[in-house]
Design goal:
This protein has three helices and six strands. It is of the alpha+beta class. It has a single domain, classed as Thiol Ester Dehydrase, Chain A, CATH 3.10.129. Strands 1, 2, 3, 4, 5 and 6 form a six-stranded antiparallel sheet that branches. The chain is elongated, with a radius of gyration of 16 Å. The chain starts with a strand and ends in a 9-residue tail after the last helix.
């Protein structure tokens, strides 16, 4: 399932050329990931109390179209699981007209905060903790 959240591009997020600063694309992606976890019933406090936390291990951003102040965008997020300790994050930032402004892909895991190691089955662990685990599957 692909989750999404809407964001408005704010003036203070712009660079000297008047378009969204490249680092802010990553902030939008992070915001969407946390909103997905929250919607699934996994706010940050619950994850920490459970002794785990998501970690991003790798990220790639493809900047496709500029974004300017005042534009509204939809930021999507999908977790795609394999069989190991990591999973793939697939995200897009989409303009109101449907144009994809950026694609963000990454590799993430779920860190055991005591052992400081990735958990063996992040999908299973997240699903067991979530109130709405269906949101967490790609």
């Amino acid at each position: 399932m692909t989750f999404s959240v809407d964001v408005a591009v704010r003036g203070y997020e712009l660079d000297t050329q008047g378009h969204l600063n490249q680092a802010v694309y990553l902030q939008y992606a992070e915001h969407a990931r946390w909103e997905l976890l929250r919607a699934a019933g996994l706010p940050q406090g619950k994850l920490l109390a459970s002794g785990v936390g998501p970690v991003q291990l790798e990220v790639r951003v493809r900047y496709l179209r500029e974004l300017r102040g005042g534009e509204r965008v939809r930021v999507t997020c999908r977790f795609d699981y394999g069989t190991g300790k990591t999973f793939t994050l697939a995200q897009q930032i989409i303009k109101e007209d449907g144009t994809v402004a950026a694609e963000i892909t990454g590799v993430a895991g779920l860190l055991d905060l005591t052992a400081r190691r990735l958990v063996d089955d992040p999908k299973g662990r997240l699903a067991a903790l979530a109130g709405n685990p269906d949101l967490l599957t790609g």
